[in-house]
């Protein structure tokens, strides 16, 4: 997603002649933009559009809601609690298609079948908030 939106889209759209997209090259102060300047402005615009598309995809993979980030939505009358949950989604692509891999490490590790990332710990330490009322 990152390579596609930040490199491939600007590269492909960069082959469109900038004079066809931009129109007049004369600025309000009477100066004229060169074709190189027009090309760089358009490339920057295409990279910005790609960054917005990447951000949208990242929010789908890692939603910023109370279920995933309870510490952000806390009321202030709680404390941090260390937890060791099992990893359910690939931290790189957000896919659920993961399987245990055989490694020489003492702890179990996962590999993502979607993006082929490997060496992902089976459990990751996270700090979550627990309200003071829910103490045992």
Q: Short description, anyone?
A:
By secondary structure, this protein is of the alpha+beta class. The chain has helices at residues 2-13, 18-22, 35-61; strands spanning 78-83, 98-101, 109-112, 118-121, 126-131.
Commentary on this structure:
This protein has helices at residues 2-13, 18-22, 35-61; strands spanning 78-83, 98-101, 109-112, 118-121, 126-131. The chain is of the alpha+beta class. The strands form 2 sheets. A 3-stranded antiparallel β-sheet has the order 2-3-4, with no helix packed on it. β2 and β3 (109-112) form a beta hairpin. It is elongated and about 65 Å long.
Strand content: 15-25%
Order of strands across the widest beta sheet?
A: 2-3-4
Backbone structural class? alpha+beta
Write down how many β-strands occur, each being a DSSP E stretch of 2 or more residues.
Answer: 5
> How many DSSP helices?
3
Spatial separation of the terminal alpha carbons: 45 Å
Mean pLDDT score:
77
């Amino acid at each position: 997603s990152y390579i596609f939106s930040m490199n491939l889209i600007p590269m492909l759209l960069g082959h469109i002649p900038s004079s066809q997209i931009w129109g007049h090259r004369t600025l309000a102060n009477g100066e004229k933009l060169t074709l190189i300047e027009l090309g760089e402005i358009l490339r920057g615009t295409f990279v910005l559009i790609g960054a917005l598309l990447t951000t949208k995809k990242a929010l789908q993979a890692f939603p910023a809601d109370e279920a995933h980030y309870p510490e952000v939505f806390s009321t202030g009358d709680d404390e941090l609690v260390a937890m060791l949950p099992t990893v359910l989604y690939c931290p790189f692509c957000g896919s659920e298609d993961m399987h245990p891999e055989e490694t020489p490490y003492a702890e179990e590790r996962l590999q993502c079948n979607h993006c082929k990332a490997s060496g992902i710990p089976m459990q990751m330490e996270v700090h979550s908030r627990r309200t003071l009322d829910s103490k045992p």
